[in-house]
Amino acid sequence: MMKFEEIKKLSISYLFANYSREEVCFEKGRGEFLYDLDGNEYLDLVAGIAVNILGHCHPAITKTVKEQVDKLVHVSNLYYIKEQAQLAQALATIMPEPLSRSLFVNSGAEANEAALKLAVKKTKRRRVVAVNNSFHGRTIGALSATGQQKYHDGFEPLLSNVFDFINYGDIEALKEMVTSDTAAVILEPIQGEGGIVVPSAEFMRTARDVCTDRGALLIIDEVQTGLGRTGKMFAFEHFDIVPDIVTLAKGLGGGFPIGAIVSSDDVASAFQPGSHGSTFGGNPFVCRVATKVIEIIKSEGLDSRAREIGEAWISRMKSLCNSKPFDVRGKGLMIGIEMGEEAKQFQKFCFKDRILVNVCAGKVIRIVPALIISESSISRFDQTLLSYINSRS
Predict the structure, then answer these.
(1) Distance of CA 354 to the CA centre of its chain
(2) Residues 163, 119 share a domain
(3) How far apart are CA 67 and CA 80, in angstroms?
(4) Is residue 57 part of a domain?
(5) Looking at the 3D structure of the chain, how many domains does it have?
(6) pLDDT band at 133 (very low <50, low <70, confident <90, very high)
(7) What is the CATH number of the domain that holds 148?
(8) pLDDT for 35-64, tens place per residue?
(9) Is there a domain that residue 380 lies in?
(10) Is it the case that residue 393 has pLDDT exceeding 80?
(11) Model confidence over 259-313: pLDDT tens digits?
(12) Pair 37, 106 in one domain
């Protein structure tokens, strides 16, 4: 078996150096745990950045993968694909009306690109309103819609100038910016990379109302928040709104790459043969897996479980952090602890305890575990958080 240093040397020698990596390599995973090359167990509260929504190697997903890989992995969208049609039907059953039409791609960035194209094609308008501190992906259109300069640096010649940015939550700016030339407003219902920022219900409802009044489409980016993570099947449901276009990825595939946009019959009709496409998008293999993911979330009530566990966990963390100026926030099992300069220190402290957390926005601990996480694992993290707080007192 290869040793860690061998793997690290190969990576440094042959891979692009565009990722900062922890000093660990994992051999296998089970549930909410990962195991390194030496068999050490780590509690995974990152879950592939909200991807492994059912944990690692969920038995039903593993069984589905084995069955499908023996039947059919890929066939072109030149033909009808049974598994793709079944996944679209499954998505329609968990979406509010009139959202019933799906288009499949391979990632969240691709889903947002497709959504932006659809909005412009449908409305025949030229501008899009986006927000500062947002993140929608790293491909050119999605990157152009991302309101964080650090992701733009060095790529400015490629970026589009059709985006008008406002501050997240600024209701008056939103009302002013959306005009008769606005094709769409694109929003995360909770900002993920931006630091687990939850908007007011008034802001989200205003976005819906303004788009309706002025003929723009509302795109809600549920790439990180979707499929039960925030305590509802989709985070936009917290605000009692229905978007015109929803984008999905991450948790939808349970660990396998897939993205999707879901819209109404009317909006979807703007795309005709040749308008958009993806070679791998909607292949039988990943669609079968994604359908099983939805089935498990529904049958086990994992959205409700995330809400109940998340509310209790957030409340408990707020009590633990009472002596520190740390802001604990989020919904369901999408939780942020704003620690400022201490965030990186706490991440290292957790790593020594073999707990994996992630820092986003440079100052926020992001916790996005599998929705099947156990109470004992939650208690394990709480103890580490308390130990850290006591060590800094």
Answers:
(1) 24
(2) yes
(3) 20
(4) no
(5) 2
(6) very high
(7) 3.40.640.10
(8) 999 999 999 999 999 999 999 999 999 999
(9) no
(10) no
(11) 999 999 999 999 999 999 999 999 999 999 999 999 999 999 999 999 999 999 9
(12) no
- Dihedral sign from CA coordinates of 298, 299, 302, 304: positive
Task: Please indicate, yes or no, whether residues 7 and 93 belong to a single structural domain of this protein.
Answer: no
Is the same domain home to 99 and 20? no
**Boundaries of domain holding 30:** 1-41
User: Please, are residues 289 and 65 in contact by the beta-carbon 8 Å criterion?
Assistant: yes
Residue 8 sits in the same domain as residue 131: no
Q: To the nearest whole number, what is the mean pLDDT of the chain?
A: 97
Percent of the chain whose predicted confidence (pLDDT) is above 70: 100
Which pLDDT score, from 0 to 100, does residue 162 have? Answer: 97
Answer yes or no: do 119 and 160 share one domain: yes
Q: Which of 300, 335, 364 represents a domain boundary (last residue)? A: 300
Query: pLDDT, tens digit, for every residue of 141-158?
Result: 999 999 999 999 999 999
Please report, rounded to a whole number, the percentage of residues in the chain having pLDDT higher than 90: 99
162/133 same-domain check: yes
Mean pLDDT of 313-329: 95
pTM beyond 0.90: yes
Does 121 reside within a domain? yes
Catalytic residues: 135, 221, 250
In a domain, 2, yes or no: yes
Question: What type of residue is 36?
Answer: D
Domain edge (last residue) among 300, 320, 348: 300
Could you tell me if 16 and 110 lie in one domain?
no
